[in-house]
Amino acid sequence: MTPRSPRRKRTVHRHGTILVLAVAIVVQGGCQTPPQKPATAGVTVTFNPLPLSVGDAQVTVTLTDESQAVSGATVEVEGNMNHAGMKPTFATLTEVAPGSYRGTLSFTMAGDWFVLVNVVEANGKRWTHSIEVPGVRVP
């Protein structure tokens, strides 16, 4: 068996280093949390009817920035149970008035939920706001 040349060892080491860096970049990119709402943004989420029970509920999201209505945004909500194993429910909301978005979200099981409000503003800025929705009841 012939000993490896120093040049070959450097090449193998260089390729190994590049591979480790590439994997680290991919893993780090996939683990980023969504950007949270800006400090100046206001988010109000209301449900109807109350108290919430299993089934469909109207959800209204009102968005403001420095007390001004945020119009022209794309707003989606994602409902999740607080425990693992349940599929999330989704709704795309429609702007019904300046800064006010409405749609229907299904609560598929009684218990504690949380809802993610995913916003893409007209200028392309993306952010997410989370709210707790405790105590969804059996009808």
Keywords summarizing the entry:
Immunoglobulin-like; 139 residues; alpha+beta; 8-stranded antiparallel beta sheet; 18% helix
Structural commentary:
With 139 residues, the chain is α+β, with helices and mostly antiparallel strands. It has two domains: 1-32; 41-136, Immunoglobulin-like (Sandwich), CATH 2.60.40. It contains one helix and eight strands, in the order αββββββββ. β2 (55-65) and β3 (68-69) form a beta hairpin.
Uncertain stretches of 5 or more adjacent residues: none
Percentage of β-strand residues:
over 45%
* Secondary structure tally: strands: 8
Largest sheet: 8 strands, antiparallel
CATH superfamily of the largest domain: Immunoglobulins
Radius of gyration of CA atoms, rounded to a whole number: 23 Å
The CATH class designation of the largest domain is Mainly Beta
Q: Please write the string of helix (H) and strand (E) elements.
A: HEEEEEEEE
Overall tally of structural domains: 2
Class based on secondary structure composition and strand pairing: alpha+beta
Kindly state the percentage of residues in helix: 10-25%
Number of helices: 1
So what's the overall shape? flat
The quaternary state of the protein chains shown equals single chain
Give the N-to-C terminal Cα separation: 77 Å
- CATH topology assignment of the largest domain: Immunoglobulin-like
The overall pLDDT, averaged over residues, is: 85
Would you identify the CATH architecture of the largest domain?
Sandwich
